[in-house]
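Researcher: Here's the sequence for the chain we discussed earlier.
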Amino acid sequence: MYDVAIIGGGPGGYASALYAHNFGLSVALIERDLIGGTCLHRGCIPAKSWLHTAEVFSTVSHAAEFGVDADPPTLNWARALERKNAIVHQLHQGVTGLLKRRKVDLFDGTGRIVLPGAVDVNGRDGSTQRIEARSIILATGSAPRSIPGYEFDGVRIVSSDHALDWPARPDRVAVIGAGAIGAEFASLLVDLGSEVHLFEMMDQVVPGADPAAARVLHRALEHRGVSIHVGTQVGPPMMTHEGVVVPYGDTSVEVDVVLVAVGRAPVIEGSGIEKSRARLERGFVHVDPATMETDERGVYAVGDIVAGTPQLAHAAFAEGMAAITHIGTGEADPVDYRAIPLIVYTEPELASVGLTEEQAKAAGYDVTTTRHGFGGVARAMIQGRTDGTVKLVVEKDGPILGATIAGPAAGELIHELVFAVGWEALPAEAAAFIHAHPTLAEAVGETLLSAAGRSLH
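Model: Thanks. This is the structure I predict for it:
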């Protein structure tokens, strides 16, 4: 009898398994594919490896601007793919080894909840074994969504899963969906020399982001050559000998491949949760946000399958830790979703935490906003990356409610403001701390000073 059986070895599952050692819990972790899940093998990590390759290629391409004469770079796609795979393999081995050192028992197969208190594991060899556990955590993750007419064939119509393992750089790509995944692929592909067409049915890239920050990214992508079509729906594709014709409006574009990036769907089919008392909505699982427990006592859900929470690896980490805390102690230690950073790893990056101005107003707050651009920031000028801005959303005479950064290293800089939002800091409190000169972080410091009513520059 295990204390916890976890179905799914992605970020939510393996974080739950690793954290359990803090409470002396015995753990069985069931994974039907590879430990690390989508994030490690088909998502966060490989995508960021490709994005870094694109950054290096772009940097070398523009080296002359910094007084460095270099031959025009040549992209070795096979070498970049090999490096990406090596990084993924190393991290996979690391996580797997750590789980074993923490005495987590790993089961290779597909887990299915059998109530009360058991999980059946169907192995790849056709065998079945039953695992008994006092508590069960479902962490089965998500899979790419397609849209009618654009069903995945892995060659002409692909998902992000396929695109991360392209054997060669596609010359012409249509990306449908300009959320985080679509925008990141558009950014890296255009920097690596592809012709890119980006389609989004909403009225801006990265829907839901602060509009001014979205415009910064829109301008940057367009300046580098991405053809962006917002507020646009595509029609059914037409296959040709040369590629795929994507119609939109009263015109069309022909490309070699279409990458559909319209979001991810929860994966719960066959998990057994549908036969429990847990409430489901469009495939997502409802939980008590304080504990991550479902309406079926002793059964928890974390990660991409949870209703109403962000599909982010670090959110899954936190949810797994919350579930394990409740299992191990009986006490609630809920995730503070207000202070979870969201990052789009484009060039420039776009990052946010807390409420946007629109969200804060919709929630009934009386807000003020403060902005500071990177144009006058010395470190940004040195790097040649001055396009972007920091924006704070502050409750009038109250704390910082949210922040958005569009610009260089936004994904790193946002963490300073995670603390400000999470601790409900007043602008004057956060502005009291000194930022080194010259740094990109000065843009954050200047914005805090302005929000406190005593700007410097």
